[in-house]
Amino acid sequence: VFARTQASLAEWEPENDDADPGSINWAAFEARDIPGSDLRRELEFARMIDGRGIVRIVSVWRLPSWLCENNSSEFFTGKTVKIRRDMEEEVDECIVSYLQYAKKKYGSEAEFFSFNESREGIYVLMDGLEHRELIKRLGQKLKDSGLKTKLILGDTATPRNPAGYLEPTILDRDAMRHVGAISFHSWGGADAADYEMWRRIATDCGTRLVVAEGGLDPHAWKTPWIFESFSYALRQMRLYQQIILNAAPCSILEWELTGDYPLGALVKADGNTNAITPYWRFHLLRHYANLTPAGSWIIQCESSRSDVLPTAFWGGTQDRKECVIHLLNLGSAREAVIAGLTPGSRVVRLYVTDAKAGLAEHECQCEAIGGELRIMLPARSMATVTTSQ
Question: Which one, of 247, 252, 248, 249, lies nearest residue 195 by Cα?
Fold first, then answer.
């Protein structure tokens, strides 16, 4: 299980702690960690996540303006910036001190670190060579400081055309020693060839592939009536099925589980209490989160129809192994024939989400005869079938 948090470096070091990037003024930093501050809440939240054994990525969206080339009062409007060449060592100190403080004061230590969408400049812009040099330089300093945190290669805004941006780092053995994972964000989607390239790069590098931001439209928060709809959820599940099928990431992190992209609406219930009415995205995400065994393996599969997208997983406990198959039907109701199962596999459950109900369990107690199983797929639906031996 993965999670991602922000390092609010603009609050951590709004002005230079001292003139020496090799010397950390801890008193100045600690004075900013005050009750009720966003920085305090951020650090406490990271501690809570780490305490649950979740693999955590910490990312930087914005830098303090004094570290940037285009230093101006417009910084907090989301303006793209570049790191000042004479401030690279100070950037490293800012990041390392933040991570060291979180470890020492809060007992939290991120597995991975990234600059968010640096290829596109959201909001710190780097080209492929600058990305490589940052990984090599900062990675060594993290190691020297005793932190386990590794760098993420990529963390691009879209999955398209990964090779050019990643290649300088991949070809540098010293830089790759500090890479712990490779990541892309799903915005805009891509074709099968791009997804397969991410998969091949991660495999060749011997490292994990993570979709650190999963979603269909980064601007969906502006049109909530759209992303609350069943149609939007179905399109997002199509995107996720394509990513899993072709890129095989170890995790997709839904963007985001907050008020900007909520999974449900807060409504008044009986007794003047609050209740949550789930949106369709919530039900469809549960097919992955609730029904796929943690730590399971992705099984290669394919469909004879372009409007039926399958993904399959194998995992479970030592005593009970399950095969979980997710079938996204984008067309009319039809019968699906699942082939390649172990003969005699028993169907345990069948769950379906369609425009009528979310994650509804259907009666389905039968065996895979001759390694084949036949089930009915409702129109425009997500169906998950689990089998055990």
Answer: 247
